[in-house]
Design goal:
Blueprint: E1 2-11, H1 28-39, E2 44-53, E3 61-65, E4 68-69, H2 70-73, H3 110-126
Parallel strand pairs: 1-2
Antiparallel strand pairs: 1-3, 3-4
């Protein structure tokens, strides 16, 4: 059985809570397990793993699925058209005030995570 790994990379700060979907209050780990039970196949298995980052510079957290960032499967909305729901830091998308969009999900709704998992499975089975 081939494995599709959902990897939550973050700093080792013990004050950081588990990654939770804000719309359902379920952890990403719970959603991955539920998705595996509901959609898993005989050929592919979804697993959740965590990696503690030692690097204090750059991105202090990320979620990848099968080695690709979540945003590769479900891109954020174009901030020039709409912004504010999925990412923090850019507010209205205006570039004039010195803020810039991080272009990563600050919070991951369960529907976005499930869509990304579906696309990862589809990518593996058709590619």
């Amino acid at each position: 059985m081939k494995e599709i790994v959902v990897l939550w990379s973050h700093t080792g700060d013990p004050t950081i809570p588990p990654l939770v979907c804000p719309d359902t209050c379920r952890t990403v780990k719970e959603v991955v397990i539920d998705f595996q039970n509901a959609r898993g196949t005989d050929k592919y298995r979804f697993t959740f793993s965590e990696e503690i980052l030692n690097d204090k510079n750059g991105n202090d957290r990320s979620l990848t699925i099968d080695g690709l960032p979540l945003e590769e499967f479900v891109p954020l909305p174009d901030p020039s058209k709409y912004c504010g729901m999925a990412c923090e830091g850019c507010g209205t998308g205006n570039q004039g005030d010195g803020r810039s969009c991080s272009r990563i999900y600050e919070q991951i709704p369960e529907s976005v995570l499930r869509l990304a998992l579906s696309k990862a499975l589809e990518r593996r089975t058709t590619g």
